[in-house]
Recover the amino acids of this structure.
């Protein structure tokens, strides 16, 4: 875990599809490095969405398992790295949100 959803305005998604696809491996590498997890722990999904004017054209939402070393400062620094990776591909700065999950109550059913 981390679980990342990247919501991109459908017009930007269509215009930058190749750049978005090329950005996914570096985004996963940065997730692994910043969150100290192996690639198999990462889940990344990109979704084209229809939004309202005035909203960011891209929004990265990350959920991660809370740990003592994952302080707010550490997560903020990691999110800045993720934002830069996505911004380079989109040519537009995404909003970024990170939500910790309680490891005691988190449930995941995997293949």
């Amino acid at each position: 875990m981390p679980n990342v959803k990247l919501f991109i305005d459908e017009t930007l998604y269509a215009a930058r599809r190749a750049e978005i696809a090329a950005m996914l491996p570096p985004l996963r590498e940065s997730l692994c490095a910043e969150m100290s997890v192996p690639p198999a722990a990462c889940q990344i999904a990109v979704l084209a969405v229809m939004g309202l004017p005035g909203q960011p054209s891209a929004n990265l939402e990350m959920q991660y398992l809370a740990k003592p070393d994952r302080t707010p400062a550490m997560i903020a620094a990691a999110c800045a790295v993720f934002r830069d990776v996505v911004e380079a591909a989109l040519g537009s700065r995404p909003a970024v949100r990170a939500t910790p999950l309680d490891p005691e109550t988190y449930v995941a059913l995997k293949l």
In short: The mean pLDDT is 96.
